[in-house]
Amino acid sequence: MTIEDLYSQETELALLELLLPHVQKTFIDVGAERGSFARWLLAKGLHGICFEPLAKHAGALGKLAEETACGFLPYAIDELDREADFHVALDEHGNELDYFHSLQAAINDPRVKSTRSDRVPCRSLESLRRQGKIAASIGVIKIDTEGNDWRVLRGLGEVR
Question: Which of 8, 67, 68 lies closest to 41 in space, CA to CA?
Fold first, then answer.
């Protein structure tokens, strides 16, 4: 896998690659989709956990977890533990897209033609830390929640 395979985020990943020798070798991938970012970090020698509530991606992330030092939990990460509507982005034909899904509704976003809502379990990173599912200290936290990033950060608690 190359940086170019990761959704045109070459600049961000090139900077992160320069920082990796100086951070703890663990990661959390919030909004993991199919696990491309996690695979990139795994190839760099890190280990971690992916969070993705979209059922469509569970197979790919489950396989990644079986084959590597990466965990997978099918939660949406949020500020609070709760159940919430997860807005699944659809194309013009009603097919699920691979991305643009969020706890926040996509309003006037031309990339999303319509949405469907599914109820999903939400967890805060702090509650997962208290439960022992994640460590209190993480090297890299990637958040891609299409508009819910601030709520993820507000749920960090003592996670650093």
Answer: 68
Pairwise CA distance, residues 139 & 125, whole Å:
14
DSSP state of 133: S
For 51, list phi and psi in degrees, rounded to 5.
Answer: -120, 125
- Alpha-carbon gap, residue 126 to 117, rounded angstroms: 26
In this structure, the dihedral spanned by the alpha carbons of residues 47, 51, 55 and 61, taken in order and rounded to 10 degrees, is -10
83-98 tens-digit pLDDT = 999 999 998 898 988 8
Predicted TM-score of the model (pTM): 0.91
Strand 26-30 to strand 140-143: parallel, antiparallel, or no bridges (unpaired)? parallel
Cα–Cα distance, 38 to 113 (Å, whole number): 28
